[in-house]
Amino acid sequence: MLRSVWFAVALMVLLPASGHAAGPTTAPKAGEPLNIGFVLYTRSHTPGVLKARWNYANAYSGPGLATGGPTTGGFAGRYHVRYFLENGQFSDEYDLEIQRRAPGDFYDVAWITDGKVSARGVGLEVAGGKSLAVGWRRVAD
Fold first, then answer.
1. What are 71's strand-pairing partners?
2. Residue 42 to residue 63: CA distance in whole angstroms
3. Are residues 119 and 111 in contact, defined by beta-carbon separation less than 8 angstroms?
4. Which of 19, 49, 111, 119 has fewest C-beta within 10 Å?
C-alpha cells in the first residue's frame, strides 16, 4: 500500500515538472508555500463516510472526515468534508465532488465553497481500491 501511495505522490509531483501541467509554472516567491496539496481518503466502516489525511505545502496537515457520500459503489459522489489541524483545531470545510474518469481508476476532484470551486485535484485508487490518493491545488477561478 505504501508503495502505491508514494507512486501516486511522485507521479503528481513529476507531471507539473515535465511541462504537462495546465497554467503557469513559475516558482513561488521566497517564503511562499507551494500551491500543492495531497489528501488520502480511506473508506470508513460506515457507508458514505471517508476518513482523510491531508497536507498542504508541507506546512499544514491533519485528519479530516467526508460524510454524506454514496452508501454503495466506489468513491464517486458528493460529500461534505471537514478538515482539522494536527492539534485537533478546525481548519476548513467544503462540499466535495469526486467524479470517476473512464477508463481506469482515476478521478477528478473538486472542493466547493459557496457554490464556487476552491480547489481541484486528480486522484488514483490505491491499496486495492480501499483508498483514493489525490494531488490538488487551490484555484482562483
1. none
2. 11
3. yes
4. 19
Of 86 and 103, which is predicted with more confidence? 86
Instruction: Compute the distance between CA of residue 18 and CA of residue 82 in angstroms, rounded to an integer.
Output: 33
Question: Given this model, what pLDDT does residue 80 score?
Answer: 98
In angstroms, the CA 22 to CA 100 distance is 20
pLDDT score recorded for residue 27? 55
Whether residue 95 contacts residue 79, with contact meaning beta carbons closer than 8 Å, is answered with yes
Give the cell for residue 104. Answer: 481506469
Length of the chain: 141
Domain extents in the chain:
2-14+37-82+91-138
pTM: 0.78
